[in-house]
Write a structure and sequence with these properties.
The chain is mainly beta. It folds into 3 domains: 2-38, no CATH class; 51-203, Cadherins (Immunoglobulin-like, Sandwich), CATH 2.60.40.60; 208-291, Lipocalin (Beta Barrel), CATH 2.40.128. The chain has 3 helices and 17 strands. The strands form 3 sheets. The protein has an 8-stranded antiparallel barrel with strand order 10-11-12-13-14-15-16-17.
Length: 292
């Protein structure tokens, strides 16, 4: 009888050891081996962000992103370690601009903020509350579509170069900070604020109807309705193409002619010269006046 009990005890012990070895090979086997109420669940990580968006992987890189990090941290921790700024129209933040007076949203003047956690070169988007602040509030405000976290925002230019004493386009840094809800336990690398910034320029707003008088035109002077996002000018049906505003100058193309002109300080008049694109020869002068 004594030998039978010893044999039974060793058999049970051997079975438990086999299960422990299986759990060591697969940590998530613990979730199947033990009732959920009796264990601490692993950290729930978000789907990793696209590496190309973060500019962390060179073209044709074969580095794979995983849904889970290489190993789970010792403590269940989730917070943002960095803030990524993503211009809505794939524009460069190094030359970001808004048209003066745009209070409502214009897509190509919007910047999206993303908080993410960098864990051993794996990236996980985190939900954080953002704050935006223009360094020079006398020249710029901030508008936002919050979606609960103030992550879609745009600078609002209050002035253009004709409003400044030195005649230069107003510029300012905009600081964007993500607020982390850091855990209370022990010491951690969690910072309550993670911040970044970008520069913005406010340019002359030429939106509206303009009548174009060109000495090579026959018939009635055409009127164009212009829209503007940052420095880019557009018209319905692309009647005018490649419209661009820089400092006190504007340029655009119509058919095979390029128009370049100077904006008057009253913002109601533009005068300039035209050039044939095929031959690069002068094509007369032109004048545009704003219509009301």
């Amino acid at each position: 009888m004594r030998h039978f009990i010893a044999f039974l005890f060793l058999s049970v012990l051997g079975a438990c050891g086999a299960k422990d070895e299986e759990i060591l090979r697969d940590p998530y086997a613990l979730m199947e081996a033990t009732p959920i109420s009796s264990v601490q669940q692993p950290v729930k990580w978000e789907q990793p962000m696209n590496a190309s968006i973060l500019n962390e992987s060179p073209p044709n890189s074969n580095r794979r992103l995983r849904k889970f990090p290489k190993k789970l941290p010792e403590q269940p921790t989730e917070w943002a370690t960095d803030v990524l700024l993503d211009p809505y129209c794939d524009l460069s933040l190094e030359s970001f601009a808004v048209a003066k007076g745009h209070v409502i949203r214009h897509d190509c003047e919007v910047v999206r903020a993303l908080g993410y956690m960098d864990l051993d070169d794996d990236y996980f988007e985190q939900d954080v509350l953002f704050t935006w602040e223009a360094d020079d509030p006398s020249d710029f405000d901030i508008g936002c579509e919050s979606y609960g976290s103030h992550n879609f925002c745009w600078p609002i230019g209050k002035k253009d170069l004709f409003d400044t004493e030195n005649g230069a386009e107003p510029k300012t840094p905009v600081t964007v900070c993500g607020e982390n809800d850091c855990p209370d336990f022990g010491e951690s690398s969690c910072s309550h604020l993670v911040c970044t910034w970008f520069g913005v320029t406010s340019v002359v707003n030429l939106e509206g109807s303009w009548k174009l008088a060109w000495d090579h035109d026959d018939g009635p002077e055409p009127i164009y309705d212009l829209t503007q996002e940052g420095r880019k000018l557009s018209s319905p049906g692309e009647q005018l193409k490649k419209g661009w505003v820089k400092n006190n100058t504007v340029s655009f193309e119509r058919n095979d002619v390029r128009f370049e002109g100077v904006i008057f300080a009253d913002r109601q008049t533009i005068v300039g010269v035209a050039t044939e694109l095929l031959t690069l020869t002068p094509a007369g002068t032109w004048k545009a006046t704003r219509q009301f």
